[in-house]
Design brief:
- It is built from twelve helices and nine strands.
- The radius of gyration is 33 Å and the shape is elongated.
- The longest helix has 35 residues, at 21-55.
- It has helices spanning 3-16, 21-55, 71-76, 114-118, 133-138, 204-207, 235-240, 244-264, 267-275, 280-311, 319-345, 352-358; strands at residues 60-69, 83-97, 100-110, 129-132, 146-149, 157-164, 179-182, 189-196, 223-224.
- A hairpin with a 2-residue loop joins strand 2 (83-97) and strand 3.
- It has two domains: 3-52 and 237-358, no CATH class; 57-228, no CATH class.
- The relative contact order is 0.19.
- A nine-stranded mixed sheet has the order 5-6-4-7-3-2-8-1-9.
- Helix 1 crosses helix 10.
- By secondary structure, the chain is of the alpha+beta class.
């Protein structure tokens, strides 16, 4: 049979309901959407956990060595693989603002890398101070950069050039309500802060290089900025533990079973077609064309829906999550097609009477 006749016959069977195309489409879509959503949201869940860990500052560690930290060496740690940002701080005299004269504000000198680590970049030397966002609100600074006034030095003005967020979510309170000024001197600092990603189990191995003299002592370990989410997180292992392969295998098995049942229900019809002279290869081609009428739009709809599911509340690019769901759809569709072809080819004209008796 020519291709035109193949598709025409398939269209008649689909339109008349003989191929049970709409039923197959509904069952297939329910299967792949269920499995695809589970796979997609599993990947999104891993991304959300990682984003929560990062945003809470749990991947930031602080090495304390008062008067023994090389700020330039600390900043240079940002070039090390696995380090996102690094900066140093040095405690300085508290300051008092004119609007909060009775509230001494912690003040720190900061290396140029510290604003990047705090998310207050870009800030450069002599551009002004960096303040905790809640402190900025207390000072009435709505738009940054903004000007406020000190309660000392004759009420001299000072520019708040940027702010950083320090929520009460379990973080170490060292920088809570604090102000920082970026300095460019070579004097020793007190602490080196490093933001790792992915998290490391041994931050001291990297951070120890920022200590000027190890013989001075005072450094035994590093402090995690936020311990509330645990010491470390391994997104790679979490992703590897997702049952993505198992979901695809389940989809393939169920799709193959449903496809086999759909052919089995039509064995008498297919055997009759063979009996009147339809070639087996043409019969298989017709069966595949019948499936194509509903399978292509079903897959297109499922992939579109899963693309939305992969984007929803996903802090990372949606590609990885979308591919996880798309794999479930693709494997199920492939299993359906192969089973339809194999089961149709297995129908025998010689079993026509047997099929009639089993109807």
């Amino acid at each position: 049979m020519r291709s035109r006749e193949i598709w025409r016959e398939a269209a008649r069977n689909f339109g008349s309901g003989a191929s049970r195309g709409l039923i197959s489409m509904a069952v297939f879509m329910a299967l792949v959407l269920l499995l695809g959503i589970v796979a997609t949201r599993g990947v999104v869940g891993v991304a959300q956990d990682a984003a929560e860990f990062r945003n809470a500052g749990a991947s930031v560690f602080r090495l304390d060595a008062p008067g023994n930290v090389d700020s330039a060496a600390c900043d240079d740690l940002a070039r090390v693989e696995g380090v996102v940002a690094a900066g140093a701080t040095r405690a300085s005299a508290e300051v008092r603002f004119a609007l909060l004269p009775d509230l001494p504000t912690p003040y720190f000198d900061a290396s140029p890398g510290m604003p990047v680590l705090l998310g207050a970049d870009p800030v450069v030397y002599d551009a002004g101070i960096i303040v905790d966002a809640r402190l900025a609100a207390s000072l009435g600074i709505d738009d940054l950069p903004g000007t406020t006034f000190l309660a000392t030095n004759g009420g001299s003005p000072v520019t708040a050039s940027a702010s950083f967020v320090h929520p009460d979510d379990g973080r170490d309170s060292t920088l809570a309500g604090a102000a920082l000024g970026v300095v460019a001197d070579q004097e020793p600092f007190d602490s080196c802060w490093v933001r790792f990603w992915p998290p490391t189990e041994n931050p001291l191995e990297v951070m120890g290089t920022a200590v000027i003299s190890a013989s001075d002592g005072g450094v035994s370990d590093v402090t995690q900025w936020n311990l509330s989410l645990g010491r470390t997180l391994d997104p790679g292992s979490a992703f590897a533990s997702l049952p993505l392969a198992g979901l695809s295998a389940v989809g393939a098995a169920v799709a193959a079973t449903l496809a086999y049942v759909s052919v089995r229900l039509r064995r008498l019809e297919l055997a009759s077609a063979l009996h009147v002279g339809v070639a087996r290869s043409d019969l298989v081609r017709i069966a595949l064309a019948e499936s194509a009428f509903w399978l292509v739009p079903a897959c297109a709809f499922a992939l579109t829906a899963l693309a939305f599911v992969a984007t929803w509340s996903n802090p990372d690019p949606a590609l990885a999550a979308g591919l996880a769901g798309a794999r479930a759809v693709g494997v199920a569709a492939g299993a359906w097609i192969l089973t339809i072809a194999a089961a149709t080819a297995a129908v025998r004209e010689t079993h026509l009477v047997h099929y009639f008796q089993q109807r």
